Amino acid sequence: MTNTLFPEGFLWGGATAANQVEGGFNEGNKGPNMADVLPGGKERLKVLKQADFDFEPKPGTHYPNHEAIDFYHRYKEDIALFAEMGFKVFRMSIAWSRIFPKGTEKEPNEEGLAFYDRVFDELHKHNIEPVVTISHYEMPLHLVKEYGGWKSREVIGFFDQYVQALFNRFKNKVKYWMTFNEINSAMHFPIMSMGFTINDGNDKYQELFQAFHHQFVASSMAVKHARKIMPEAEIGCMIIAAPIYSYDSNPENVLYALQEEQRFNYFAGDVHVRGEYPAFIQRFFEENNVKLDIREGDLELIRDYTVDYVGLSYYMSITQKKNKEDAETAAGNLLEGVKNPFLKASDWGWEIDATGLRIILNKLYDRYQVPLFVVENGLGAYDKVEEDGSIQDDYRIDYLRTHILAMGEAVQDGVELMGYTSWGCIDLVSMSSGEYSKRYGFIYVDKHDDGSGTQERRKKKSFDWYKQVIETNGAALTSGEKISSGS
């Protein structure tokens, strides 16, 4: 095996999102956001695909994001635990509706800004750099219901005001920024990142790609402001990265997989990094009667203000077959596809493919030649608290070990990798399932799907394991020495 030591200054840490950890959904003058009306449990998956969801809270429905894990009140305790693991960075997001409760106000909400001031100060006290996602699946509900989310060009102006408020306030506290979380997720479920649902009609792509255009313009505006307000900062885009394999060597399936990979993995990245719409999407627009409303100056802005790096989440690869009628589907994968006979799956049916991470890192770096940053990766699993209070999550350690080693191999391949922030470094509310029981963290939170629990924090076995990985800059994974098993 090659040496998988990571470069000096590699940014180890963990990742969360405001709507999945903060709670305090109606405190500090925060307004309701899109995540606040998503139900918990099995109903969540239905909503993500539902074409006529009305974004209205329903009596008697459990909304776990309202309380989440109460990071809003317990952030000091949690950050201390992150520091104990040795985090260099903590990826987090800012709740847009904490800063502009409806999204349309003329002035930002001081209580919201002050809360993030306190969080950033606490992180810096522990020598942890924040990595901030500006919009992470929590658009103000008013913008969703009154403007149709990112379908409306007016939302660009509201987002622009929000961005400037953040940059002016936190320019001396945040070095690393990303604009939209998993922007390409809208290909499969636009409700989360764009704030609207679509029907499977003949014009379903028109609204979707018009909304993409609005987000690309807004993202480039953010880059422009960053260059002016905080020239030392780095600002990136963020995509779901999933290599798409052909089911077999049938050229029809190979071509189908290629086209799916182009649209899913490269379309948004090409616009953000290369500064232009790629030729393959132009053909797709022609074949699907998509006619974008592109205003004067839009394409120049996109061309002139490209991102500094590409942030990415990696959870799975996707296997595709043009005709799926005689193939078993990969039911657990939100991103669809057919079952890969060579891969095992998690408790939630997500296929596990560490080699796929090395593959997609190579593909993305070969294409873009800008630094990459793995800002989400992890295993959602059921955890059991033993009689002695321990959580023996060896399955999580095994998952993370293989993925970090694959990432190290990509570094040896020549990929310029900035860092790694494991998703859900502390247990949180799952985005896809709205469950607490789908646990990702190194830190167990006593909170359950029925809303019960004390919110007590408890270290898992993986806590001390990850601490040693960070301490050795990954060298402990290949040194032959046994990594501490923790408590």
Automatic annotation (TrEMBL):
<dbReference type="GO" id="GO:0008422">
    <property type="term" value="F:beta-glucosidase activity"/>
</dbReference>
<dbReference type="InterPro" id="IPR033132">
    <property type="entry name" value="GH_1_N_CS"/>
</dbReference>
<keyword id="KW-0378">Hydrolase</keyword>
<dbReference type="GO" id="GO:0016052">
    <property type="term" value="P:carbohydrate catabolic process"/>
</dbReference>
<protein>
    <submittedName>
        <fullName>6-phospho-beta-glucosidase</fullName>
    </submittedName>
</protein>
<dbReference type="GO" id="GO:0005829">
    <property type="term" value="C:cytosol"/>
</dbReference>
<dbReference type="Pfam" id="PF00232">
    <property type="entry name" value="Glyco_hydro_1"/>
</dbReference>
<comment type="similarity">
    <text>Belongs to the glycosyl hydrolase 1 family.</text>
</comment>
<dbReference type="InterPro" id="IPR017853">
    <property type="entry name" value="GH"/>
</dbReference>
<dbReference type="InterPro" id="IPR018120">
    <property type="entry name" value="Glyco_hydro_1_AS"/>
</dbReference>
<dbReference type="InterPro" id="IPR001360">
    <property type="entry name" value="Glyco_hydro_1"/>
</dbReference>
<feature type="active site" description="Nucleophile">
    <location>
        <position position="376"/>
    </location>
</feature>
<keyword id="KW-0326">Glycosidase</keyword>
